[in-house]
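From the shared-data thread, chain only:
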Amino acid sequence: MPNSTPAQSSTSLGTAFVERNLDLVGKLYQRSVYPSVLDVAHGKRLSAPLVVDLDPTTVCDLACPECISSQVLHHGQIGQDRIVRLAHELAGSDVRAVILIGGGEPLLHRSVGEIIEVLHGAGIKLGLVTNGTQIHRHLDRLAEMLSWVRVSLDAATAETYRTFRPSRGRRSVFPQVIENMRKLAARKKGRLGYSFLLMQRFDEDGRVTASNYHEVYQAGALARDIGCDYFEVKAMLDQDHYTVNQRAEHIELVEEQIARLRALEDDSFHVLHSSNWQAVRHHVDSVQPKDYHRCAVAELRTTVTPTGVFVCPYHRGNPKGRIGDIRETSFSELWASADTTVIDPSEDCRFVCARHATNQEIRLLPRRPEPPELTEDFDPFI
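Structure, as tokens:
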């Protein structure tokens, strides 16, 4: 692992911290994480994954036309009693971190507050991906107990938000979400992110009929004004998780705005590229070949939903990637019998996968004669 530079400005230290938390390969070499990673590299099974993506519900209060989870929405939720028992089961396991996500909107589950309290009380680190509409209902817990909250907004104005993120009542809840984020920003102990998914619509002749590309700078400036720690730009994916190719002029439009946003960065605010936008801007092929047949990361983290447990979020709802049902058994029993090799990355994961580099790194570990230099723990969300 590279050595850190001893003398840096406060801004560069802040940037280094953010980049470190985005370094999925670097996270493998944390002192308490590496032994589990090495076991997986040698083909051993863990008593529990280190990270769980938990979808409490498939219900959502928005009706986004481009929602990549549309096929798994509105198929119920994990029962209130069962999900509380599940939280206690995770609390008694070797799970290090839980991400409340979806599927649907996780904060709509009636037991989500109790789930957060149980997991936080057990020392499990918590992250949340949310549309932000319900933050005010859980403000105290989110401010005190979450390591990070990422809000999916994809707009800088109520008009654009209404276009791409309409509520089921057909009104824009953009002002409510922004106000919720301001309240959280004022009290948070963890990090708060503003997620901006680049989206376009085209007519039959290929002309753009709707777009949020022009609002990247405005959204980033708003994120800073709210008090967010970071603003993240992400590329749109199709329903099969392949990146959607972009025209050169549209990439240039986004990059020009990101360059302007760099002037707003300081030790407390950062502008980030997701891995899929990095792929688009560098014209990487949307098909990412993989020469391995086992996903090691599937042993380190898993995805629990109301309709089944899946090897990862990319395969949420895919029958082939289903490894159990949390409604029918305890988490420990499910994991002990789970076959995390049901997905063959060389055939089933030809999209650009955020954990591809992690899998490649893990494959190399058994061949290295010298133990690596390990870092102190800094982020369990591997």
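Residues 1-14 have pLDDT under 50 and may be disordered.
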